[in-house]
Amino acid sequence: MSPSRSLPGRAPAFRGGTARRLREGAVVALLFLCAALSVATTVAITWALASETVAFFREVSLLEFATGTRWAPLFSEQAFGVLPLLSATVLIAACSLAIAVPAGLAAAVFLSEYAGEWTRAVLKPLLEVLAGIPTVVYGFFALSVIAPALQRLFPETQLFSAAAAGTAMGVMIIPFIASISEDALRAVPRSLREAAYAMGATRFDVTARVVVPAALSGVLAACILGASRAVGETMIVTLAAGGQPNLSWNPLEAMQTMTAYIAAVSLGDTPFGTIEYRTIFAVGSALFLLTFGMNVLGQWLVARFQEAYE
Amino acid sequence: MSLAERAFARPPWRRRLAGGLFLAACLAGTGVGLAGLALLAADVLVEGWPVLSWDFLTSFPSRDPDRAGIRAALFGTLWVMALTALVAVPAGIGAAVYLQEFAPRNRLVRFIQLNIANLAGVPSIVYGILGLALFVRTMELGRSVLAGALTLALLVLPVVIIAAQEALRAVPDSLRHGALALGASRWQTVRAVVLPAALPGMLTGVILALSRAAGETAPLIMIGALTFVPFTPSGPLDRFTVLPIQTFNWAARPQPAFHHLAAGAIIVLLALLLAMNAAAVALRQRLSRRGRL
User: Fold this and answer.
1) Per the CB < 8 Å rule, is B251 touching A3?
2) Contact B98 A32 (CB under 8 A)
3) Which residues in chain A are closer than 8 Å to B185, comparing Cβ atoms?
4) CB of A288 within 8 Å of any CB in chain B?
5) Strand-pair partners of A132
6) Does B126 sit within 8 Å of A45, measured CB to CB?
7) A28-76 pLDDT, tens per residue?
8) Chain A neighbors of B137, CB-CB under 8 A
C-alpha cells in the first residue's frame, strides 16, 4: 500500500549517534500523536453524544423515542417520538436522490464512456464547482428560485416544502454521485469493453449491458454515500423545509428534519441540563448512527469494486 | 440469450435509435447539474449585484437593510480560517506523514486509517454538537472565535490528512531510496526529500480543505455563533460571526431587502472561495514546474 513498505526495517538505515536516534524517536512520537488525534476525535464525538443521550433516556423511554408519532419537546405537553423528524429526513433525502441519482449517473456515464478528452476537461471541473458551493447558498437558492417555481407548478405547495429543499439538495449531491460512479465505471477493464465490441455490440450495448453492470457495486456505493450526505445536510433543510415536525409523506408540505431540529434548538436559548437541551444529543446520536451505518456500507462496497479489478 | 444474440436480434435502425436515445438521456442528465449551476449563479448575481458596494463591505450588520454590511462577517471569516489552518494543517500533515512514512503495518494503524475515512463522512452538525459539548461547555471557551476554529479544525482534519497522504503517495520511492543510500535517517529523508516533493499536492489539498471550512455554517450555529455581532473580533476569545452565518441570518428573514443582502454576501463568499481555488491551481502548477518531480 505505502511506498515506504519497501524500506528496510524501522530503524534508521544508517545508525547515527544516540542524540540523533533520540531526536528521531521524538519526531516519530509527535507524528504518531497527530495521527492519534483522529481517533481522539471519534472518542470525543462518542463521549459528547453518549453522556447527554444516556441522561435523556433516563427520563424518556427508548420505546417512546423510537415509535412515538409526535415530536413536541418544547411544548408544555411534551412528546418525544422521533418518527416525524425521521420521516421528514427520509422523504427529503429520497426527493434529492430522485434527482441526483439519474443525473449523477448519466453524467458519470457520459464523462467516462462518451466524452472526448476536451469535453471532459471542461465538464468535470464545472460539475465539481457544484460540490464546492457552501450548503447555505443552496438553501438560499431553494428559497428564492425553487420554492416559487414549485408554487407556480403546484399551487398547493407550501411556502416551505420538502420538495424545494429536496430539489436543491439533489443538485448539490449530483457531483458527489457522479464522481464516485465515474471512478467505478473507469475501473472496469478495457478488455471487457473490447470483448463486447468484438461481438458486434454498439456503444450503447457496451455501456448499458457490460460496463454499468460490471461497476454496479460502485454505483450502489455512490447512491448510499449520497444518501448519507443528504441525511446529514443541515442548512438547506433549515432554510427551505420549514420548522414544524410533520408526520406526512406529502413532499409539498413543510416539515422538519432531524438536522433542522438540532439547528433550530441551538438557535434558541435552551438552558444547559434541561430535557430540551438533551434532545439535541438524543437526535444527534440517532443521526450519527444512521449516517455511520450508511458510510460503513458504502465504503465496504467501494473497497469491493476497487479490489475486483486490481 | 447471449449478449451478441440479443444485440443482433433487433434491426439496425432500432439499435441506432436505442443508442441515440441513451446518449440523449446521458446528455440531459449531465445538463441537469449544469443548468442548476447556471440558474444558481444567475439568481445570486441578479439579486445580489445591486447591494455590492464599498459600504457593503465595510459596514457592520444593522437592522436597517440600507445601512447593513458584512464587515464583522468578513473579519470573522478571516480570523476563523487563520486559526483553523493553524491547528488543522500541522496536525493533518503530521498524521499523514506518520501513516504514510513511518507507520508499521499493524492493526492499530489500519484502525486509524479506517477511522479517518469514517470521520470524513460524519455530518458537519455532529461536529457542531462535539464543539458545543467539548469546547464551549467543558473547556469553557464560550462562543468564541477559538471554539469555532477548533471545531472546524476537527471537521477538516480528515480532509487534510487524506489529501496529504495522496500527495505523499505520489512521491516516487527512488527519491527515498536515494536519500537513504546517502546515509540520511528516515526523518531526514522525509524532511529534506519527501516533504518538498509532496508540497505542491499538499498545498492544494490544504487550500481545498480550508475553503470547505470557510463555507461551513451548521457547526458554527451549534456553538452559538448566530447572534447580532456589530464588531470585529480583536482576539481569539471574542465573539464572532462569519460570512455563511450572516448569509443564513439574512436569508431566513421574510423581507426581500434582506434577501438581496444575503445574495450580496453570497457573491463575496463565492468570490473568496473561487480565489482560494484559483490560488490552489496556480500554486500547484508553479511548484511542480520548478522541477522537483
Assistant:
1) no
2) yes
3) 12-14, 16, 20, 24
4) yes
5) none
6) yes
7) 999 999 999 999 999 999 999 999 999 999 988 999 999 888 898 877 7
8) 272
Q: How many CB atoms lie within 10 A of CB A66?
A: 13
C-alpha cell at B202: 499538499
Say whether A44 and B130 touch across the interface (CB within 8 A).
Answer: yes
Residues in chain B: 293
Q: Do B15 and A202 touch (CB under 8 A)?
A: yes
Query: Are A35 and B123 inside 8 Å of each other by CB?
Result: no
Whether residue A289 lies within 8 A of chain B, CB to CB, comes out as no
The C-alpha atoms of residue B74 and residue B44 are separated, in whole angstroms, by: 18
- B74: which 3 cell numbers? 468578513
B window 83-122, beta carbon within 8 A of A = 90-95, 97-105, 111-112, 115-119, 121-122
> From the candidates B30, B112, B135, B169, which should be mutated to test the interface with A, based on the most A CB atoms within 10 A?
B30
- Closest listed residue to residue B242, CA positions, set B210, B271, B265, B208: B265
* Contact between B145 and B236 (Cβ < 8 Å): yes
Determine how many CB atoms are found less than 10 A away from the CB of residue A210.
19
A238 Cβ under 8 Å from any chain B Cβ: yes
Q: Are B122 and A45 in contact (CB under 8 A)?
A: yes
Q: Do B100 and A141 touch (CB under 8 A)?
A: no
Question: What is the secondary structure of chain A as a DSSP string?
Answer: --GGGGSS-SS-SS---HHHHHHHHHHHHHHHHHHHHHHHHHHHHHHHHHHHHHHHHHHS-HHHHHH-S-B-TTSSS--B--HHHHHHHHHHHHHHHHHHHHHHHHHHHIIIII--HHHHHHHHHHHHHHHHS-HHHHHHHIIIIIHHHHHHHSTT--SS-HHHHHHHHHHHHHHHHHHHHHHHHHTS-HHHHHHHHHTT--HHHIIIIIIHHHTHHHHHHHHHHHHHHHHH--HHHHHHT-SS------TTS----HHHHHHHHHHTTPPTTSHHHHHHHHHHHHHHHHHHHHHHHHHHHHHHHHHHT-
Residues in CB range of A166: below 8 A, 6 or more apart? A91, A92, A93, A94, A95, A96, A98, A99, A251
Can you tell me the distance from the alpha carbon of B173 to that of A5, in angstroms, rounded to the nearest whole number? 10
Q: Which of residues 211-230 of B touch A (CB under 8 A)?
A: 211-212, 214-218, 221-222, 224, 226
Cβ-based neighbours of B83, under 8 Å, separated by 6 or more: B145, B146, B149, B150, B153, B236
pLDDT (tens digit, 0 to 9) for every residue of chain B, 293 residues total?
566 566 566 777 888 888 899 999 999 999 999 999 999 999 999 999 998 888 888 888 887 887 888 888 999 999 999 999 999 999 999 999 999 999 888 888 899 999 999 999 999 999 999 999 999 888 888 889 999 999 999 999 999 999 999 999 999 999 999 999 998 888 999 999 999 999 888 988 899 899 999 999 999 999 877 777 777 888 888 888 899 999 999 999 888 889 999 999 999 999 999 999 888 888 877 776 655 44
Residue type, B95: A
Length of chain A: 310
Cross-chain residue pair A205–B7, CB shorter than 8 Å: yes
Answer whether A142 touches B (CB < 8 Å).
Answer: no
Q: Do A262 and B129 touch (CB under 8 A)?
A: yes
